[in-house]
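$ fold --in a.seq
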Amino acid sequence: MHVMIQLRPAVAREAHAVLALGGHPPEPGEVLARLLALVAKHGLALSPVHPGATDPSLVPHFLVDAPDPASAERLLKALRQVDGVDGAYLGAQSEPP
């Protein structure tokens, strides 16, 4: 299940830079560090929907692939508490349930 995440612009730009470096920046910002730790705590990984994008309308969009609906719902609830997250929701399924 795709968990779609829209980050605030500054956090999104930082996330693109961090993920392009393999997730090992010198010192991630506090908000991004919290977000990455939260996703990792669930055993998942954050990915940009549009890697390498520079268009401001595309940069904020990220996703996490959750293994099942219950995991996705737990992650959504936690993501909605992170200051740098403007929105988090389930993405459309590409296959019938």
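$ fold --in b.seq
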Amino acid sequence: MLVYQTMSSKLLSDQTCIETDDPRSICISNSSIDDISNNIGILVFVLAVAAVVYFAIATRQTVHNYLIMSSNTSDYQTKRMKAIAKRKVIVKPRKLHDNALRKKLERKSFWVRREELREAELQDEELFKKPLPLLEDCPICFERMPTLASGSVYMTCCGKVVCSGCAHAPVYDNQGNKVDNQKCSFCRTSWYTSEKEYIARLEKRAEVGDAEAIHFLGCYYFYAQRGFPRDRTKALELLHRAAELGFAKAYYTIGLDFEAVANEKKARHYFELAAMKGCTSARYNLGNSENRSKNTNRAVRHYMIAVRDGHYKSLNQIQRLYKNNQATKDEYTKALRLYQEYLGEIKCDQRDQAAAANDKYRYY
């Protein structure tokens, strides 16, 4: 191998000649080599920085996604440490995680509130809808049945509910002759003669699924009446059974039970169930509850529905609200008109005679 020196000693100091089999020699400047080395170093450094940044971003995003997937804020730190352990890196706590999770929970609560609001609107629509009459027309005179409890009588012999006028009216035989008045106005069965016979008839009616008879037995257990022991569990069992069979007053009685033990939430729930089925006493209680909560408009709406079905206490409440400037004159006028319309539907001479003869037959 021959090395040809074609430059001066000064030029040789700046060049490097490489020996080859070629008769010519290759000479490369030392400054060029240094430039290439510097460029390669910069490129390697940039690639290394890019790799570190990418790895850091990927790690942060993985941990971030893992944390915000859970809405259980109590396990936040535990889940965060597990996520860090999986990536085997150390991530400093950042407020971004907390804010992202908080925003997600806020969005979730917004939709929850929206659904709850919609459910409340539907419930109000059902609650304030005009209910069906609580009782059917009297099976004897076919007049509208009074809503006042003393305006109707339950017959334990046949399970029929007749108005106070028909219960008090004299009974005639097939020939039109007046007979003993101590008989059922509907089935002509003689009245019970003892408390034991009354309970036996009531239990017999309950066995065949008579909802009102079941309700009576539940009330007797609840209030410890007619020789029944005080048994709240048995009473609630019977009342729930009567309510499932369609007797609205059973829901009202259950509500009274929860009201007695200061469980306002459950009491209101059962009052609403009873009110939607036409129980005016439950509607009156709901109106009083809204009035105590300063929701006067809702209270008046409840009272107005109860007045339309003949609840005179609700009429008195509207009158009181009107005197206190909490109800308008139009609302009070409408309540008076509705109550007069109700009286026009239930009043008759036979019921007036019964009410005059005995106060237990008062029907308004």
